[in-house]
Amino acid sequence: MNSDPSAGSADAKSVAVQSIEFVAAGSRDDFDAVIHPDAYNHETRTEPPHTRTRGPASWYATALWLRRAFADLDFEIRHAVADGDLVAVEVTMSGRHVGQFVNYDESGAVDQAFPPTGRSFAVAQSHWVRIRDGQVIEHWADRDDLGMAQQLGWTPPGPAYLARMVWATRRARKTPPD
């Protein structure tokens, strides 16, 4: 048994950081390695319905959903702090809006669609990750969604972009979720 108490914290931080970095570029196998089969992501309420399940498939589905909308997706790790099985990770998420970004309501229906603007963004986020058996078992986040929306021109939308949003939302409601 390892008697160094910081070793467990280092391992927990490494797993938590990997789980966030993999959203930008990880494979399904990467998610299988760090996400517990019973893991639950508390942040999927506005994501496609198939991201709202437990386990690595849910995390991978979230990653693909974000990657379709944002090129050059990156999570710059600022800090990671562990306290027992809980790890807090401060990041800057950045990317460029190149694909349609669709939000869903709690029932899983399309709520709003944002057509690509080509604009870049960089926003602060804090992720809270609980580790069990060397894998992520729970995740919460505090994100600057308003800052991202402002940088991408989603809010306040100009008249032309508002019209594009209406048409994109109508099209998305006719198309099954990604």
TrEMBL record:
SUPFAM superfamilies: NTF2-like. Pfam families: SnoaL. InterPro entries: Cyclase_SnoaL-like (IPR009959), NTF2-like_dom_sf (IPR032710). PANTHER family: ESTER CYCLASE, POLYKETIDE CYCLASE SNOAL-LIKE DOMAIN. This is Ester cyclase. It comes from Rhodococcus daqingensis.
